[in-house]
Amino acid sequence: MNARMIDPPEDPMIRGFVQYLKTEKEASPHTIYNYLLDLAQFTGSNWPDLESPPYPWDEVDRYAARRYLAGIQKIGCEAATSGRKMSSLRSFFKYMVREGKVRMNPFSNLPQPKRSRKLPGVLSVREVERLLEMPTGNAEKGTIKQGSDRVKIWNVYSSARDKAIFELLYSTGMRIGELTGIRESDIDYLSGVVKVSGKGKKERLCMVGGAASKALRRSLELRDAYWLSLGKPGRAPFVFLNRNGGRLTPRSIERMLKKYLAAAGLHSEYSPHTLRHSFATHMLDSGADLRSVQEMLGHSSLSTTQIYTHVSIERLKEVYEQAHPRA
User: Fold this and answer.
1) N or C: which end of the chain has fewer CB within 10 A?
2) DSSP codes, 245-309
């Protein structure tokens, strides 16, 4: 449902809070919609028999807050959802305390529901190698030789481009959005690095391995040939082109990956981010230290990188249980 379809709230405090979100917080319609959903659930739970606003907000104490938290957890809300609802109500009561409408914020010191940390999906080294071979395999099978001259040039280029994308994602561990934002001037073949702009526009250097460097050079050579076949002037402005000569988008890469996963006989739920997870896990498996992997991934916190140590341990457990006679 679109946030703009919500009727203006009848409760004066909620109405004031919405105005505060719009003007002072510059919240998006989607964010405001989620706040209103959470507030509507709370009012329906806390005052089920109240026919119409205004609601007696000053009657809500810590017991009511805890009771509500227990209630939403009991009906099966995941920790992330419960945490968001608590955050919405905490912000709303903070606003009312600031406005002098209530004396205290009953949600201020409630413990956040603990999230279960899911381990990321990871490809084995052999599975990565199988995936990296798929674009080249298509070319060798002759599937790129059909059609007009421009179509042939496109087919040859797109195969090399896809190979370079997979090699680069796995070689560097970069995010898909970082990859699509690369400019040719960001690539330093001599030093074997590529500069990317990550989250928060933080720049970092990613190491480019020999196989990825070779695939990238080949892709750029064929890109220029395809650019000329389109009748475009000068050099192509983007590292990776789509069929029309525009910048390749993350969504296009996701669709392209699904095609190659199916051809390789791999799980269709894997995403380009799986290559980032695989990069980090394989680096740690091979003895890389956690701090170095943190720098390569562009994580601001070491705790974010530490999840890959758990992945490595889980993989060791699988090997142990399969191989040890008394596991």
Assistant:
1) N
2) SSBPPHHHHHHHHHHHHHHHT--TT--HHHHHHHHHHHHHHTT--HHHHHHHHT-SSHHHHHHHH
